[in-house]
Amino acid sequence: MAGNVRTVVAFEVARTLSKPRFWVVTLLIPVLIAAIIGLETWSNSSTQSSAAEQANAKIAFEYSDASGVVVPGIATAAGGTVQADAAKGLADVQSGAVDAFIQYPADPTKQPVTIAAKDLGLFANQRYDAVANAVLTASAAQAIGDPSLAALAAGGATTQTTAYDGDRVAPGLAGLIPPALYLLLFYLVLVLLYQQMLAATLEEKENRVTEMILTTITARSLVAGKIVSIFIVGIVQMLVFATPIALGYAFLRDQLSLPSLDLSALVFDPWRMTVGALVLVGGFALFTGSLVAVGALMPSVKDAGPVSAVFMVAMFVPLYTITMILSNPSAPIVRVFTFFPWTAPVTVLARNALSSLDATTAIIVIVELFVVAAIVLWLAVRFFQYGAVEYGRKLDPRVALRSMRAQRTGGAAR
Question: Longest C-alpha distance within the chain, in Å?
């Protein structure tokens, strides 16, 4: 049997890995992720630069000041000219004589500053707000007199908070990202291999060649080889996704950064990384077994689709409770999702990343995932053994189990 399983594994893995489509889809995702990170980094720097330019922009504008706060010298330095007549100011904007007419109300804290301006485009128009606020802020700072008090009044105070988990400093966002990568890997691999898992036991059925194959190999060896091949292909995809991330972190972490986070400061907590790895493997095994079992019971992919969709829905449902996982991980719905096998992988991986998973719960869920996965994989093999040549009808799992029990009882009696 071992030789037959190796033959099936070698054939399935070689067939999958030799397809250009497999590598195109697999490599496309890391390339897209890298492109998104690069574009986001460039966009953040461009946004910051644009905001600074808008704040320092000098435009030709007229203004009226009912508040008495604006200092004429500051407004003039920014390109402003006093215009008491609002109608004249609006007419100057419409004729193109000035870029904007700004009206400061009697109480800018309660009333809006109104601006009539020449249209420069949706985003470029923000420079008018920046100039109007900059003039008002600088004037208020001069009225206060003390630069330190002016900075505090403008919200210039900075805070630095250090959170502690027991007697050690909590890593915060720097500790969240590494274990969160397991959740990303789980989704990527399951989505990409979903069809292959489902078709593992259906391909030969739909092609009506199962009987021919079973003349040279047992049904048990065939399905076991297919399951092992799915695991190998899944591991290959995980390595393909993880390798560029690891290389980027190893060689470019000092050059890359995310908002409010230095990538060189990432924290790889051994416990959380180990828990994430075990949950990833257990969850992958559980979903593989579940989809293979569905395929073994159904005569075609079309028939298996609606049933298999239930497992895919279970994989995404926990995302709808992510705010509750963040704010109240002890909520009943979160606890149900934590211990229900088919929602546990996503929920536990999210809680593990967010540091809301205690060691006892982690151990219980890991054991549960591997035990349930083993049972489901065993059922998948048995269902395929019983229904390998059932081409035209769906199998009732209860009938299949009763038949196998009867066969074992009869065999033991003989």
Answer: 110
